[in-house]
Write a structure and sequence with these properties.
64% helix; 10 strands; 8% strand; disordered C terminus; two-stranded antiparallel sheet; 503 residues; 3 domains; alpha+beta; Gyrase A, domain 2
């Protein structure tokens, strides 16, 4: 059998999204190809979901997302961009004939309705925050793993000559992360990226220790990524204001100067203090949450995380994780949230066992389970649990149980943290850190995973698959599956996913 390559997958995707002329932007995160489209009505959703290698499709505001899974998404995106640069296979044909105008109007109406449902201020803000921080995840992962290796070597007193070098490599990015946040913030909000980075660099510049205002001396890094985000936002506003009012001859010289001067001074004398207080409050709140209500907090966080992943909004938590890592060396929230993936794995295993006559669905589960064990939940969400309905809810139950397990130990004094963000599931073990030592921390985290697997499996096995659903899957197309997002029955003639509802 011919094995699909990134180029063949990209070549198959391009005409199904309307051709090169219909693609306005291309980006990707850890699992999804994110496309900006000129005309949403020219996309063939059914054919896209049927493509080998495509695990699901999601429409979230302006972005049309094709779930391809970790690793594959980067290679397919590269091939997709290469095809766009050469014109691909040519744009999709524009409908012609008497009904063309009617179809075009209908497509525009559908697109406008979709945008209206996703245009809430909260969703728009969360998507923008995600766009700022998602590009930083590869560096966070790499540096986090190096930090873990350096810590392990230091504890074991191995390779003492190499340990300082690894520590420097792992710490350099975190020391300058404010610059990258500023660059991406300006880019996202329509400013000049390098000016955003220049303004945000003030936050981490060692010389700010010489600046005193209101009787207080600044500390380099005060405010962290939150201060950098606020500084770059202000810088973008100042830059746009200047460009709208200065003539071209003065714009070249005065706009960058005023942008750095005005936003830089406000950052030094206002934003760094304010962001520092917010960052301190975030750390204190996380500590209080786990030490006083750990089990309950873990239950809620682990149980509600899958819906965030389904909507693509989980990336908005990255600033909180980054703030905790800057302050405490690790984020205690990520291991709790990772339990959602454990519940998903347990639910998928139960579906595999109970629907043993559904060979198509079992094949999907076998291909998606390895990614699920490593904490990548989209393949199982869009390929298994969400299309079936109730298994998605029982997977959330499993995640809640695993989160409660880890949260309970936090109440007892054994916190579980991660030195970086991005990996989850079993891939998170190299990044674990805690006050009780790596072995104890790893044991608690493993216990949470096993709890999530077991409860997710049991809840799905006994409550997640009704008799009607099992009968319909056994006979292929006889029944209907209830989509919890739509609350309407839909045909169960295929195990493929459908886009998450934007509501």
């Amino acid at each position: 059998m011919h094995k699909d390559t990134p180029h063949s997958t990209a070549a198959a995707l391009l005409p199904l999204v309307g051709g090169p002329a219909n693609v306005t932007s291309v980006a990707h995160c850890m699992t999804r190809l994110r496309l900006g489209l000129a005309d949403r009505s020219r996309v063939d959703d059914a054919a896209l979901r049927a493509l080998p290698g495509v695990l699901g499709v999601v429409e979230d505001g302006e972005a049309y997302q094709v779930v391809l899974g970790p690793g594959a998404v980067g290679r397919v995106t590269e091939a997709f961009e290469a095809l766009l640069a050469t014109g691909g296979a040519g744009p999709a044909e524009t409908p012609a004939g008497p009904g063309a105008d009617v179809l075009a109007r209908r497509g525009a109406e559908l697109k406008a309705g979709q945008r209206a449902r996703n245009a809430t201020p909260l969703k728009a803000a969360l998507r923008r925050v995600a766009n700022i921080f998602v590009p930083l995840i590869p560096a966070l992962i790499g540096c986090g793993i190096l930090a873990g290796v350096a810590g392990l070597l230091a504890n074991l007193r191995w390779l003492p000559g190499l340990t300082p070098a690894l520590a420097a490599l792992s710490s350099a990015f975190m020391a300058l992360i404010a610059v990258f946040v500023g660059h991406n913030t300006a880019k996202e909000f329509g400013g000049t990226p390098v000016l955003g980075g220049a303004v945000a660099a003030v936050v981490v510049y060692p010389g700010v220790a010489q600046v005193t205002a209101f009787g207080m001396t600044l500390v380099p890094g005060q405010g962290g990524v939150l201060g950098a985000l606020a500084a770059a936002l202000l810088g973008t506003r100042v830059e746009k204001w200047c460009r709208a009012r200065l003539p071209g001859t003065l714009d070249v010289l005065l706009t960058p100067t005023l942008t750095v001067l005005v936003s830089g001074l406000v950052t030094l004398y206002v934003l760094m203090y304010a962001a520092g207080e917010v960052a301190t409050a975030v750390g204190a709140a996380a500590d209080w949450l786990l030490t006083t209500t750990g089990a309950l907090a873990g239950l809620l966080l682990g149980g509600l995380f899958l819906p965030l992943v389904m909507l693509g909004l989980h990336q908005a938590l990255i600033p909180i994780h980054a703030t905790l890592i800057e302050q405490q060396g690790h984020t205690v929230l990520l291991p709790l949230l990772a339990m959602a993936g454990a519940g998903q794995v347990g639910a998928a295993a139960a579906v595999y066992v109970r629907l043993r006559h559904d060979t198509s669905l079992r094949t999907t589960i076998r291909s998606a389970l390895p990614a699920g064990l490593l904490g990548v939940g989209e393949p199982l969400i869009y390929g298994v649990s969400l299309p079936l309905g109730r298994p998605f809810l029982t997977a959330c139950v499993g995640g809640a149980a695993g989160g409660a397990f880890v949260g309970l130990f936090a109440m007892l004094g054994t916190d579980v943290g991660a030195t970086a963000i991005g990996p989850s599931g079993w891939a998170l073990f190299p990044l674990l850190a805690g006050d009780a030592g790596w072995a104890t921390t790893a044991a608690v985290y493993a216990g949470g995973l096993l709890t999530g697997y077991a409860v997710g499996f049991a809840a799905t096995y006994f409550f997640g698959l009704g008799e009607a659903l099992r009968a319909s899957r056994a006979h292929g197309t006889a029944g209907a599956v209830c989509d919890p997002e739509e609350h309407e029955p839909r045909p169960a003639d295929r195990p493929g996913p459908r886009p998450a509802s934007p509501r």
